């Protein structure tokens, strides 16, 4: 299968590109710069110059391939309005891709986060939030999944808050960065709240499986670790960085503080059973042992 991939040079995208190529697919990838194009070509992919705002380029990429995996998202959230702008940008891009694929029965695999459900681990059957800071993204993904009724084999891979590789990435990576800056491996609350996680290479395998065989209009959970206690994560960070481990105010983590304090475990039972996904790379706590002092 010839696959159009957006966000192909990021942590997840690089792993997805390698996974596709290893399993006999070819990759046409969106490239925002010359450096990105060189990186893609070195990996064995073909580069298509353009960005997420170039809707004609996105439509052209979808038109000349057998399916699409969308991973690109603007993570520059330095300004208060940046998240809304990034969601608006992604929404336009996804609708352009979906319109190009309408009536073709070709796959469109997109990405979101695992939902939070009070009092229990979330499952693939739980809806995405449609309000709050990321509610716009939930509404967009839900709308894209509904394109299943218009002849697009849509699927959404829901990612946990920590996607890690070689000790870096996700919420755990933000805790590590905060510890380096402050000199304390801190965590909000009592640290019993749980965060799900997945290794980037395991997540990549799930994106490929969803592309190849997921039924239209379905959601899947890329969850390898159902939920590690945040204080256990901080304990590994503290040991690796030789820093004290202790609770700190939520405000220490800025806008992420309230999210960091939430208990948000998630499961992937249906995903493993239905798609045959079998995560086998190091767990988050094992991978954090790669943190450099």
TrEMBL record:
Region listing for Disordered, in residue ranges: 115-135
GO CC annotation: cytoplasm
GO molecular function annotations of the record: aldehyde dehydrogenase (NAD+) activity
Top-level taxonomic group: Bacteria
Domain NAD-dependent epimerase/dehydratase: 3-215
InterPro entries in the record: Epimerase_deHydtase, NAD(P)-bd_dom_sf, NAD(P)-dependent_oxidoreduct
A Pfam entry, by short name: Epimerase
Protein name from the UniProt record: NAD-dependent epimerase/dehydratase
Organism whose genome encodes this protein: Kineococcus radiotolerans (strain ATCC BAA-149 / DSM 14245 / SRS30216)
């Amino acid at each position: 299968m010839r696959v159009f991939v957006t966000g192909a040079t990021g942590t997840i995208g690089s792993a997805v590109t390698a996974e596709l190529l290893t399993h006999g697919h070819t990759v046409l990838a969106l490239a925002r710069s010359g450096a990105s194009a060189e990186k893609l070509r070195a990996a064995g992919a073909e580069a298509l110059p353009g960005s997420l705002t170039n809707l004609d380029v996105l439509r052209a990429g979808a038109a000349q391939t057998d399916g699409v995996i969308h991973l690109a998202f603007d993570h520059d959230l330095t300004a208060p309005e940046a998240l809304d702008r990034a969601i608006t940008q992604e929404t336009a891009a996804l609708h352009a891709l979906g319109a190009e694929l309408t009536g073709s029965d070709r796959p469109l695999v997109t990405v979101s986060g695992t939902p939070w459900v009070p009092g229990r681990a979330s499952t693939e059957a739980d809806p995405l939030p449609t309000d709050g800071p990321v509610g716009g993204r939930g509404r967009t993904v839900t709308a894209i999944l509904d394109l299943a009724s218009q002849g697009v084999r849509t699927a959404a891979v829901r990612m946990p808050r920590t996607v890690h590789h070689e000790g870096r990435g996700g919420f755990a990576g933000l805790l590590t960065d905060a510890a380096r800056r402050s000199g304390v491996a801190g965590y909000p609350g009592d640290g019993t709240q749980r965060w799900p996680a997945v290794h980037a290479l395991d997540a990549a395998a799930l994106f490929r499986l969803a592309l190849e065989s997921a039924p239209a209009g379905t959601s899947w959970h890329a969850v390898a670790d159902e939920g590690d206690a945040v204080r256990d994560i901080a304990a590994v960070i503290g040991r690796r960085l030789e820093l004290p481990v202790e609770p700190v105010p939520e405000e220490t983590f800025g806008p992420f503080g309230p999210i960091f304090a939430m208990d948000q475990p998630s499961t992937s039972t249906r995903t493993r059973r239905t798609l045959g996904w079998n995560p086998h790379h190091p767990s988050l706590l094992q991978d954090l042992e790669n943190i450099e002092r």
